[in-house]
Amino acid sequence: MHAYTHHIGDFNTATLHLSRLERSIYRDALEFYYVNECGLDASDFGLLARRLRCDTPEEKAALQFVLDEFFDLDIESAQYVQPRCERELADYRAAVAASGAVKANVNKRQQRHREERTQLFAELRKAGQVLPWDTKVSELRAAVAKLKAQQDLSRTSHAPVTANHSPFPIPLNQEIPPNPPAGGADAGQAAPIDDQKAGRQPAVKVQLMENPAAVVAQLMACFPEQRRTQVQLVGRKVVELVEGGVVTAEQLLTAAKAQSALLNKDDGKACPRVMRWLREERWLDAAVTVTGGVTGGVTGVTSVTGVDANWRSGRAGVEAMGIHLGLGPWDERRERLFSAYEQRVVSEFDQRMRPAALMGV
């Protein structure tokens, strides 16, 4: 222990009755106690007096008085101990242990940081990109993420699309047409008739996308950069939707471009990820409109005058119903998630409008 807390007032109060010699010896005894981090050796008084530079009979008598006045004799350890010194040493040892743990954690974080930088530099060099050695790790991560996104898109357009090849796996629930039967085109024309005789439905014809990578790239461009995630999953979902006949590529791009300003509002704070936008069929939001002023009056179980009957299928319809119910439009400052606002509108509709509609009011 190389330092300790010295309270001047406490020390002066406790040593008012000491002579100048006794006071000096007491101070030397305390410092010797802290330096060795243990009590004063009581097994040999002559040796202890020599260590504290007490040579004359007067100095030795003063040392004995100080030991009797301020220290307790611990017979088991053969040491003179003092409670105040023991508390200081305990606090010191706890602080040393804590600083050691903190230092170990810092070293681990630094080691992980160096390993990550090494890995990022290796990935970039492998792709032919050489960045300065002092590039920030955040910039390295962004460069690697951009590189991986480019690689994912390049895999979808490196070869021409043929009738037997698709850049993304065909969905499991999509029926693939059988190969033409032997005998040429004439024999193939009879296949649907045979299916009808056998009681089977004819196979659905799959229309493969010519360039799904280009569609995905244009779709991504309509969203804020931080929402352009899961590129591969987005590509597969687009192929599934388009080739499954749910929506056309032109409809997807037209809806995304129409919603682009709303999606990028306030740096995209309320914008969903592209994958979520596809799963929830939010391209329909551009098609849901309020056909007239909201005047009230239930016209059906799930529709209100002036509000599209299928209002739950899109954001615009939900907002129209919310305005009719007096909840106002969606305010992202109040409810940052649109799903919370939608849940509130549906709950209010079920409480107020649905019972009246079922009763024929």
TrEMBL record:
UniProt name for this protein: YdaU family protein
Lineage: Bacteria, Pseudomonadati, Pseudomonadota, Betaproteobacteria, Burkholderiales
A UniProt-annotated Pfam family: DUF1376
Region (Disordered): 170-201
Bias kind Low complexity: ranges: 182-193
Species assigned in the record: Comamonas aquatica
